[in-house]
Amino acid sequence: MCDRIVVLARLDHRRWSSCCEHGTAHLTWDTFSLRLSTQKLGTMGQELLECAKVARHFRIAGTGEVCVVFDQYDLYQVWFGGTGLCLSPDDFKLFCKLISEACQHPIVQPTCGGEQTVSHPEPSIRTAYHLFSLN
Predict the structure, then answer these.
(1) Residue 68, Cβ neighbours under 10 Å: how many?
(2) Planar angle of CA 37, 40, 43, nearest 5 degrees
(3) Which of 43, 23, 20, 53 is nearest to 99 (CA)?
């Protein structure tokens, strides 16, 4: 159980990111919660921002464990290693802002852009996703 929480970034009382004494980053978006290492948060944060730059134009962008799909209903599907969120364009911008601010926190900063990680090639088609929609 986590006793000491440091808030990395906060949009409001339902959308925030924190880090506990175990070095685990907690990402909360409405009723969705994801736990990952701060190093993985830093890496995935960079990948998300890269994907966000091109997803609107090409409808899909993916790097490492992050995939962003701008679907036919003009909603963003954001995939983090097999778990997804379906977001409106406005919420997607806020989500990217939250992740960006979390990656700028001193706890996460050493992992953002520090070491280069070796990525393993992944199959071009992924099928094991679980989409959680807020609708």
Answers:
(1) 27
(2) 155
(3) 43
The whole-model pTM stands at: 0.78
Three-class SS state of 82 = coil
Residue 45: name the closest of 131, 132, 88, 105 by CA: 105
Model confidence pLDDT, tens digit, residues 62-98: 888 899 999 999 999 999 878 899 999 999 999 999 9
Please name the residues in contact with 98: beta carbons below 8 A apart, sequence gap of 6 or more: 9, 10, 11, 15, 16, 17, 27, 29
Evaluate whether 48 touches 96 at the Cβ level (below 8 Å). yes
Instruction: Report yes or no: 24 and 17 within 8 Å, Cβ to Cβ.
Output: no
